Amino acid sequence: MDFDSRNKEPESVTTLLKDTAIESVVTSAKEIIVPYRTGTGPGLMMEFGTRSDSGEGITMQPAQTDNSYTGEEPLELYVKLEILTKTGELVEVKPIKSAGGANRANFNQYSVRPNTRGRWTLSCSKHPWTAKKDYISYPSYGGHQHSNIPPPPVAISSISLSASTAPVHATPSPIIFPNLQGSATHYYWEQFPVFATGIIEHFSGCGSATNYISVQVSGLIELPGGENYYYAFNPWGSNAYHGDNHYGTQKLIDLVKIVADTYAVAFPAADRLYIFDMSLFQGGVIDVNRDWKKPFPGHDTGIDADISKKMVPLENRKKLLEIMCANADTYSEQDVPGEASYFHIRVLKTETGAPTEGFAGDSRTIVKCCTGNEINPGALKACISTQTLTR
Predict the structure, then answer these.
(1) How many distinct structural domains can be found in the chain?
(2) Which pLDDT does position 278 carry in this prediction?
(3) Which of these, 35, 82, 182, 377, is most buried using a 10 Å CB contact count?
(4) Mean pLDDT for the chain?
């Protein structure tokens, strides 16, 4: 038997299985093959197989699970997760992986976007039951390397027989739900964090189930370095806590390359562009104050990038602005004491379809530099100037 994938010669298991109920299943097999794989899923994933007389590998299909020897009843907990969209619709989130059957599982693995609200549906067909939910959050999974303030508890509503939207409140683990009716459908709401994280939730009371939840923006790509006319640059200390912050959608990566390459053609003797913050590798808020809160809009969905204004010679900035306006939504994040000055480019909404929230509520002075695909003449002076050159 080969349990560790080190290619040892498999031994005959016929004698090992002698006098057992399944001896007849394997008496004609030459060997039992037990490769295993590891990955993001929990536990050991195994697949049993045999070889035919001709040497062909044959996967053995598992029989129905028999829990009679443990005295336990088969799992009867039904679980479903739905996300509330910005238009008020509920969309079911299908598990990426699960074990134990669709929605009746020992574990389910989900992926949800940060700052979304989900509704859990639960039912237990066996008997009146009391539910308990334990959870642990892992913000380092989302690129947050700081612990000066513990991450806030997840926000959960009370559990109810009503499917209507319910208010949520921060609830430390463990959460003990009241006595619940057997053969009835119950609901509760969960507000997922604004920052990317991994959450492990263990649910008990009707058998047990574990949810592995990736709070993330899926599919972001790292800005490649060394091959285009830019530097991926982290110029200040706060980014030591969010070091991997040059990620974006494919459209943003392409946009940065277009702007940088076109600028290099226009000014071949100039230094490269300095690309500051984009997004973390799993998206979500970059909490530069290390307080798990959103300091300013943007940089959480992979459609934003900052370009240093200081590192571009003044005489080159108008041309750079023309290039950016032709390809992106472009803003100037104006100087304040101790703050760098940047151009902020964002993938055009018409190109990505991703929701953008603008800069409403931002305490900084933000100037929109473009009208359509051209420079806004009234904003030109403000967009190319810098008041402080601290960085």
Answers:
(1) 3
(2) 93
(3) 82
(4) 78
pLDDT grade, residue 337 (50/70/90)? low
Q: Are residues 231 and 377 in the same domain?
A: yes
Domain boundary among 215, 235, 268: 215
- Are 293 and 188 contained in the same domain? no
- The pTM score is 0.76
The answer to whether the CB of 132 falls within 8 A of the CB of 205 is: yes
Asked if residue 321 has pLDDT above 50, the reply is: yes
Shared domain for 210 and 226, answered yes or no, is no
Cβ-Cβ contacts under 8 Å for 8 (sequence gap 6 or more): 2
> H or E element: which one contains 251?
helix 250-266
Residue type, position 313, single letter: P
> Would 49 be classed as within a structural domain?
yes
Domain containing residue 157: CATH number: 2.60.40
- Provide the token pair at 218: 């899926």
Cα gap 358→352, rounded to integer Å? 15
Q: Which of 178, 193, 215 is the last residue of a domain?
A: 215
User: Rounded CA gap, 299 and 281, in Å?
Assistant: 11
Q: Encode 65-102: b = buried (16+ Cβ within 10 Å), e = exposed.
A: eeeeeeeeeebbbbbbbbbbeeeeeeeebebeebbbee
Dihedral sign from CA coordinates of 289, 290, 294, 299: positive
Asked whether 299 and 284 are in contact (CB, 8 A), the reply is: no
User: Which H/E stretch holds residue 118?
Assistant: strand 117-124
The 8-class DSSP code of residue 5 comes to S
Together in a domain, 171 and 90: yes
For 14, 59, 60, 61, 101, the CA distances from 46, given in Å and listed in that order, are 20, 11, 11, 12, 17
| N residues, the chain | 391
26 lies in which domain range? 1-63
Query: And the tokens for 290?
Result: 């290390």
